[in-house]
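BUG-347 | component: ligand-complex export | severity: low

The export step for dinuclear copper ion jobs runs without errors, but we want the raw record kept on the ticket for reference. Input record follows.
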Amino acid sequence: MERAVRYARRAWLTAATFALAAAMAGCAPSYPMDTLSDGSDYAQKIHWLYIFVNWIDLVIMLIVVAAAFLAIFWFSTRVGEPGEPSSVTSDLRLEVAWTAIPTLILVFIAVPTIRIIWQTQPYTWPSDALDVKVIAHQWWWEFQYPQLKVETADELHIPADRMVHFELESADVIHSFWIPALGGKRDVVPGQINEITLSATQIGEFYGQCVEFCGTSHANMRLRAFVQSKDDFDKWVKHQLSPPVTPDSGAAAAGAKVFADAPCAICHTVRGISGFSKEYDGAFKAPDLTHFGSRTTLAGSILVNSPQDLAMWIRDPGKVKPGAKMPVLGVRGDDLNDLVVYLESLK
Ligand code: CUA
């Protein structure tokens, strides 16, 4: 009787532990960097494989746990109880079986795994694919759309349901490009072009992050990906191609002068007004600001694009993003306010 009570208590504790684990696994809210999203064909394939392997794992785990419980509770003997330990030391059939079965399971998992590895390689892509050149810098992302003549920073825009062919280059050290919800992760290696092709399937805003240690502000090298409908994407492109705002009076006009006089314009470009290529040898490039005001974030997507955050960034970039290549320019007071008004006006 006492033994039955002990078993019942153990069984109850075990069931409670499993229930708690299941509840914890089930109550995960949606995270912007969720690796189990189905944001692209690429992500869907990885997700399918993950679930497939997990079901196999679950069955194996249940069998192993059941066998362990059987061994513990069924075949155990206690002090004072009669019983002799088994004297079997080997069994050829058993050994063949527990070598062959795992081998077969591994082959069963390897076949779809290898197939998906091949399917997610950028070997071919349709001729109407959108090319996006991704250039990783310490510590921000440059996005160029060679077919569209668009250039932007930190915020990637792509149309849904169209193959995108990313060409990944580095301006300095090794980085790694990853937007978890869209799948593919690739290292960005200096002197080499790596590629990813994927077709986004979910409209929305997704977070990305550099995932290869690349220096002091590696953790601050983030990005946003905006997957848009074809119409919205075309509108965005049209807007990006439009000339920048050129204020002729007020704080914005004063700010434009500060922008040109302070060394901002040496590294940053506002198309038609200044250009890093004209003024600088190209050793260091900073984000194109032509339509800066239309971006939602700044400084490697770590700050929200607001006048307060922008002023904080300009005042002391290294304080916001340790190691930032942008120097303290010493722009203060009214000059700083005007500069912020001007930059925010660059919608
Ligand atoms: Cu770039 Cu880490």
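Assignee comment: Attached the raw record above. The chain has a mean pLDDT of 88.
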